[in-house]
Amino acid sequence: MSDAKDGGSARDFRSGVPFGDLPDGAMIVGRVDADDVLLARHGDALFAVGAHCTHYHGPLADGMIVGDTVRCPWHHACFSLQTGEAVRAPALDPVACWRVERVGDMVFVREKRAASAPRRLRDSSQVPTSVVIVGGGGAGLAAADMLRREGYGGPVTIISGDDSPPCDRPNLSKDFLAGTAQEDWIPLRSPEFYVEQRIDLVLGTRVSMLDVRQSNVVLDNGKRHAFGKLLIATGAEPVRLTVAGASAIPIHYLRTFGDSRAVIASVSSAKRVVVVGASFIGLEVAASLRARRIAVDVVAPDHEPLERVMGREVGRSIRTLHEGNGVAFHLGTTIRRIDGRIATLSDATTVDADAVVVGIGVRPVITIAEDAGLTIDRGIAVNEYLETSAAGVFAAGDVARWPDPYTGERIRVEHWVVSERQGQVAAKNMLGLRQRFDAVPFFWSQHYDVAINYVGHAERWDAIEIDGRLEARDCTVTYKHAGRALAVATIGRDRTNLEAELKMERVTRSQ
Ligand SMILES: Cc1cc2nc3c(=O)[nH]c(=O)nc-3n(C[C@H](O)[C@H](O)[C@H](O)COP(=O)(O)OP(=O)(O)OC[C@H]3O[C@@H](n4cnc5c(N)ncnc54)[C@H](O)[C@@H]3O)c2cc1C
Ligand code: FES
After folding, report:
1. Whole-number pLDDT of residue 2
2. Which residues line ligand 1 (CB under 6 A)?
3. Sign of the Cα pseudo-torsion (504, 508, 510, 511, in order)
4. Among candidate residues 432, 442, 441, the one with its CA nearest the CA of residue 385
5. Whose CA is nearest to atom 42 of ligand 1?
6. How many CB atoms lie within 10 A of CB 499?
7. Residue 125: pLDDT above 90?
8. Which residues, at least 6 apart from 438, have a Cβ–Cβ distance to it below 8 Å?
9. Is the CB of residue 41 below 6 angstroms from any atom belonging to ligand 2?
10. Label partner for 457 (CA 20 to 30 A): which of 122, 142, 270, 483?
11. CA-CA distance, 207 to 280, in Å (whole number)?
């Protein structure tokens, strides 16, 4: 695998490209009529697909070819070069494909190929009479989408406590909050999608009870809903802050589209906002509010932001980045009370605030699983096929604790890409396809123009190796335990992050 490419020069692929310009593993960007196209070679096979990722438009030519797939450098979506299908989230839509023809020493890109039809289910004995998905987040939507892609024709119902359809949750603390992403970019799918795909989306409705023996769920309006197979994808909810005093200002949490809109409405006239918590959401909120020129004070008990996940040195560097953008930190402190518009911290400092946004962590929403007697292990325990202790009941996303083949531990994470990929794998397993969930966890976080990509999972480490320079925003940080790399974070080195993911996958798959 190599990645020779010519960085986007607009070659006309209809006029042909010398075969010699395409060594094995090469990716070249050019044009076919009005489209940007990626021409790629893997062994003797040649492929032409859309040049931009369907997630956030990442440049696929800067990614990596793995077998007959290409991985996006930004958030590791994976597309089939054969069919264009988005085989792994976070992209859900395919890239277009063109027919490629080699004539002598020249390679020509010909006509666009028709989109692939859904697959046909082979083993109908495993096919459930219906599928109910509890939760309209990343995992729930990705599962429903995959059921249809796999050719499942039975009833699919998503029951969601959210008032809005499944949305791009990570965007709620980033571009949408900063005011640079429009409202209509946030839903993951259009209203027509649910109609066309015959997915019954029940919003603003919670499941209050799961009856495994009777194979049905009870909704908060008292109705019962039967299922053939069930996916629990109830995600996580923000930990609440208890503050003394008489606050005259709004205290916000950020989980739903509605929450993000409420923050925007309340900061529209604000001059100062206090952000409680210095982990990913708190810091992303701080960056987005700075984009709106609002003064931000971050209050957190930690020594450095992000320290628990990324270590002290990375945390210090991220703090410097935020301070350079005007954020004031009050670390080693907590909010003791709020009186009117004044927050008093545990070190007696006072800070003025027109609003407070709290990001102090989340906890998995497991009540219905717990009450139904499913095995709980700081989340819902699932096996490698994402099935819970009850046959036919699966769990995916922030709620699920699964056996991670790389670390050999049972882990639970709160990452967007993992939730969607688990939803996809759970969907396949509900159809009897028996696919192990063995993806290496990945997440990203965005602070101003700095993106952190993190692959693997290191809850603890005994060594951190830093290659490159944090302050130059060009580095690889490796988290090791007993000499073994458990996780790799990169800034400004997307390709290295993809390589680290692949290396960990190969270890996992060789076991
Ligand atoms: C603001 C924000 C920014 C983030 N940024 C990033 C990021 O940059 N990178 C990253 O990797 N991750 C990020 N995350 C985390 C990521 O969004 C989550 O890991 C992901 O959303 C989990 O998906 P999920 O489907 O498991 O749960 P969720 O997306 O939380 O969805 C859970 C769904 O279940 C519903 N529900 C809960 N209980 C019930 C019930 N009893 N009945 C019916 N419905 C119920 C909820 O209403 C909701 O629809 C971010 C999260 C937030 C909130
Ligand atoms: S832009 Fe490609 S995965 Fe996000």
Report:
1. 37
2. 134-140, 159-162, 169-170, 172-173, 206-207, 233-236, 254-255, 281, 365, 368, 397-398, 414-417, 419, 443-445
3. positive
4. 432
5. 206
6. 17
7. no
8. 384, 405, 505, 508, 509
9. no
10. 142
11. 29
What is the C-alpha separation between 186 and 471, in angstroms, rounded?
Answer: 32
Point out the least confidently predicted range of 9-23, 126-140, 379-393, 450-464.
Answer: 9-23
**CA dihedral of residues 97, 99, 102, 103 (deg, nearest 10):** -140
Instruction: Say what the pTM is.
Output: 0.96
Contacts of 442 (CB under 8 A, 6+ apart): 75, 76, 415, 417, 418, 453, 454, 455, 501
HEC profile for 353-377?
CCEEEECCCEEECCHHHHHCCCCEC
First to last CA, the chain: 22
Radius of gyration (C-alpha) of the chain in whole angstroms:
24
**Contact indicator for 61, 16 with CB cutoff of 8 Å:** no
**pLDDT digit string, tens, across residues 313-368:** 999 999 999 999 999 999 999 999 999 999 999 999 999 999 999 999 999 999 99
